[in-house]
């Protein structure tokens, strides 16, 4: 009970400050896919080939802002993240390293108009010819990740600012923009109030005041919402409920990844002197709706991507961006067979997080995901035709935590080693003192009894002597 009170997030508590500005060292290791045979592929001579280049490592700092403790026992907040390049953990300088990369705006926009009329497709094709858009571009890593000028993007931003609300395009820049949007999360933190309404401590209950994901069809006025788009047992990954069992399952949610990431218990261990439960991403989290009916709402317009690949287009301007595990691990083999250079390895590419079950505090993590571009059937454009119906890897990221910071380890050691021993020692001391008190009381009582008895006998003896003398 005492430990639960200590780890509960309350205003101005130690746990609150650890949660608000987590002291973890989180590194985002980025691996880009460089095209190695662009000319031969465009000429129809070979399958498109990639080689992996990385890591380019960035330190990520999270701060939970606009924090309010609500009357219903929840806490509302907006997560904000900043990143900074870490040269000593990187393979090169992203400002000067150049690669041959996929032109995401060009291929993405041409794919996104797949369901439009023939006239619009023809007009868009002519525009791309006029501005000389090419499907492959040579850019520095910095430009590709954080923004470069693209004629199509600038044109779309000027003509359709409601659709394309940015003038420069960078893949990580767009992910961070979505991550750092004004997304207010509500999280229960009061133990007693959470129990009263059958909630789960530290879970995300609402996003922007809603109990579901609007981008996946959630409607607060509808009765047809499903498990697929309704928030249930979601967690931001900073902290989990204390004292959970191996049967517990969780769903990680980060706005930049657009969709929930379910994780389940894999194995238990001991790490840093504490109990550690390793959780891995569910093997069927990107399965087809036939294999996993809970994925049905992720199939837009009744169209599902192959097993192991998930649509993210509702979060990214309807550009056909797709999610997978690195190198298409656990995906339909045909996805990686259509291209060269994919080498999935569970040891390198699996998604896992290690959590201390008593406190709910993460100990280590390797959250590995890949961002891809799904090029649909494009028409009236010979430059995009070779890419039709391919799922193309852009980059993958390993969000890693190599261990808890010293302050967390000291806190856990104090809570779960020192404090129980102190409590046990105090219990022993109190038990000993109680025993001493009881024994002392018995001896005192016996002593008083003997004393009183002797006094009584002496008085009686003196009275007898006095009577005899008379």
UniProtKB/TrEMBL annotation:
<dbReference type="GO" id="GO:0005886">
    <property type="term" value="C:plasma membrane"/>
</dbReference>
<dbReference type="Pfam" id="PF01130">
    <property type="entry name" value="CD36"/>
</dbReference>
<feature type="transmembrane region" description="Helical">
    <location>
        <begin position="425"/>
        <end position="451"/>
    </location>
</feature>
<dbReference type="InterPro" id="IPR002159">
    <property type="entry name" value="CD36_fam"/>
</dbReference>
<protein>
    <recommendedName>
        <fullName>Scavenger receptor class B member 1</fullName>
    </recommendedName>
</protein>
<comment type="similarity">
    <text>Belongs to the CD36 family.</text>
</comment>
<keyword id="KW-1003">Cell membrane</keyword>
<keyword id="KW-0472">Membrane</keyword>
<keyword id="KW-0325">Glycoprotein</keyword>
<keyword id="KW-0812">Transmembrane</keyword>
<keyword id="KW-1133">Transmembrane helix</keyword>
<dbReference type="GO" id="GO:0005044">
    <property type="term" value="F:scavenger receptor activity"/>
</dbReference>
<dbReference type="GO" id="GO:0005737">
    <property type="term" value="C:cytoplasm"/>
</dbReference>
């Amino acid at each position: 009970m005492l430990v639960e009170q200590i780890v509960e997030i309350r205003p101005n508590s130690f746990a609150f400050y650890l949660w608000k500005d987590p002291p973890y060292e989180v590194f985002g290791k980025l691996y880009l896919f460089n095209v190695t045979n662009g000319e031969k592929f465009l000429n129809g001579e070979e399958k498109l080939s990639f080689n992996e280049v990385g890591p380019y490592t960035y330190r990520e700092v999270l701060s939970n802002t606009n924090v309010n403790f609500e009357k219903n026992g929840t806490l509302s907040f907006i997560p904000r993240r900043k990143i900074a390049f870490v040269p000593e953990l990187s393979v090169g300088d992203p400002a000067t390293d150049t690669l041959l990369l996929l032109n995401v705006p060009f291929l993405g926009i041409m794919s996104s108009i797949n369901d439009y009329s023939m006239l619009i497709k023809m007009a868009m094709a002519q525009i791309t010819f006029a501005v000389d858009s090419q499907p492959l571009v040579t850019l520095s890593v910095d430009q590709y990740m954080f923004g470069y000028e693209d004629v199509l993007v600038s044109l779309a931003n000027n003509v359709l600012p409601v659709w394309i609300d940015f003038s420069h395009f960078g893949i990580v820049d767009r992910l961070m923009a979505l991550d750092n949007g004004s997304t207010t999360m509500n999280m229960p933190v009061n133990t007693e109030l959470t129990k009263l309404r059958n909630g789960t401590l530290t879970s995300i209950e609402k996003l922007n005041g809603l109990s579901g994901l609007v981008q996946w069809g959630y409607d607060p006025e509808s009765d047809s919402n499903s498990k697929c788009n309704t928030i249930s047992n979601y967690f931001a990954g900073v902290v989990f409920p204390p004292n959970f069992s191996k049967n517990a399952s969780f769903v990680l949610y980060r706005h930049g990844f657009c969709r929930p990431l379910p994780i389940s218990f894999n194995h238990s261990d001991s790490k840093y002197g504490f109990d550690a439960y390793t959780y891995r991403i569910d093997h069927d989290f990107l399965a087809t709706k036939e294999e996993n009916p809970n994925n049905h709402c992720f199939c837009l317009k009744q169209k599902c991507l192959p097993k192991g690949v998930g649509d993210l287009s509702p979060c990214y301007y309807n550009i056909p961006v797709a999610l997978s595990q690195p190198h298409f691990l656990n995906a339909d083999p045909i996805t990686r067979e259509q291209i060269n250079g994919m080498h999935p390895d569970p040891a390198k590419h699996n998604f896992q997080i290690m959590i201390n079950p008593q406190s709910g505090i993460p100990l280590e993590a390797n959250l590995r995901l890949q961002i891809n571009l799904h090029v649909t059937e494009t028409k009236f454009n010979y430059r995009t035709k070779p890419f039709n119906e391919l799922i193309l890897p852009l980059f993958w990221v390993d969000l890693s935590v190599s261990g808890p910071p010293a302050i967390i380890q000291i806190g856990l050691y104090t809570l779960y080693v020192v404090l129980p021993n102190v409590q046990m020692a105090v219990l022993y001391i109190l038990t000993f003192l109680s025993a001493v008190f009881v024994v002392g009381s018995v001896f005192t009582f016996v002593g008083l009894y003997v004393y009183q008895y002797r006094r009584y006998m002496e008085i009686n003896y003196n009275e007898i002597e006095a009577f005899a003398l008379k």
